[in-house]
Records
---
Amino acid sequence: MPVPACQTCHDLITAERDAESVHDYSRATDCRVLLRRHHTHGHQTPPDQNP
Ligand SMILES: [Zn+2]
């Protein structure tokens, strides 16, 4: 899975992988829910990430 430009997506995906690596599946599920909610509420690339 590619690392997204969006910092929020990146943080949530990292946290999900982290949780799965320690078999904390309830935390991983939380991260997936938060990621979906983040997308629903308008995922955007922060303006300060322009080159
Ligand atoms: Zn995002």
---
Amino acid sequence: MIAAVDQRSTPVSVVGAKRDYISHSAITTYQQCPLRYRFKYVDGLPERFVSSNLIFGGAIHSALEFHFTELLYGNEPPTQDLLLDVFQDAWRGRSEDCEDIRFGKGEDHTSLSALADRMLTTFRENPASASDDTVIGIEEELRGELIPGVPDLLARIDLLTTTSDALVITDFKTARSRWSQNQAENSSSQLLLYSELARRLLPDREVRLRFLVLTKTKTPTVEAFDVKVNRRRSHRTVQVVKHTWQAIQAGHFYPAPSPMNCPSCPYRSECNA
Ligand code: SF4
């Protein structure tokens, strides 16, 4: 089945009913499955279930954001209990509208709370939690045109810091297992786009990119990976977004079934129909 949008639609309608910008996650959704993109961003269909991974990752993000917000205001790092309270508040906030939360095998809210406790303990003990860099922004939004004719890119930067000579963009990740430097480089398209945006908005500053990866393993780890800003790779990433956008605008919304994406897709009923 090929689902095509009404060709009379304006470009805004294929970005999303209430949007006039694109995001890295929307582009990635299209690249994984164009039909899922349509269901989510064009048709605005409600998701039939939410993965606990998504809620868990968001709640850990909220705890890290709270930690760095306290540093931004010159306060002492928050206690473990406070971080856990933030995690639980965020979990409740994100889950109260979800009628169907899908947990992984052997997981429930209690086991994930215990995991969050271990991960946040490891984070607080890691040097990355007491960065020497100056925190200047948390969940900072940057927005601007990267490609003429393509809607603005909206970047939500988890952590923005400065050193004496550079602006550092950090993205928080929760992962099933430890990353390698190679994996960080291969996952850098989002950061490369953000660096392009930052470079255009602040042309005089050197921009550095970093992942802070917390693992959801029995014994969690916290590792920072710096990613090289390579102009050739940045240019290629921008071109990939440009061509992805052209495919979206042309209404190419076909299903791309895969054992990786379909089991966790909240639109399986609509897709089967
Ligand atoms: S079920 Fe699979 S093919 Fe269908 S929309 Fe979802 S990800 Fe795409």
